[in-house]
Amino acid sequence: MTRQGEAFTGPGFSNWFVDCARAAGLPKGCCPHGLRKAAARRLAEARCTVHEIKAVTGHTTLKEVERYTRAADQERLAVAAIARIGSRGPAEP
C-alpha cells in the first residue's frame, strides 16, 4: 500500500522496492521479480506441486512455473539418487 493507502501500480511497487533495497544496502539488481523466483524455488524445495506453486506465485502457465523450479527439482533428484546409491552399500565387482 502506498502512503496514501492505495494499492501500488506494478511500476510503482517496483520503484518502491528498488529504493528500499538500495536503502538497505542490498546489491544492485535486487528487484521484485527476484522475490517471485525465490518464492517459487523455496516452494519447490518444500515439495509443493507445480499447481500449488502456480497458485502462490500467480504464474499463468505451468510451463512458467517449471522454468523457475527446474534447478530445485534437479537438485532434489540428484540428492535422492545419491541417497539411493548410499543405501545399497558398496557395489560388488
UniProtKB/TrEMBL annotation:
Any Pfam family from its record, for instance, is Phage_integrase
Top-level division of the source organism's lineage: Bacteria
BP-aspect Gene Ontology terms: DNA integration; DNA recombination
Q: What are the UniProt keywords, alphabetically?
A: DNA recombination
Q: Does the keyword Cytoplasm apply?
A: no
Entries under Gene3D superfamilies matching the protein: Intergrase catalytic core
| Domain Tyr recombinase span(s) in chain numbering | 1-82
Cited InterPro entries: DNA_brk_join_enz, Integrase-like_cat_sf, Integrase_catalytic
The answer to whether the entry has keyword Transmembrane is no
| GO molecular function, a single term | DNA binding
Any idea what this protein is called? Tyrosine-type recombinase/integrase
Query: Which organism does this sequence originate in?
Result: Roseomonas acroporae
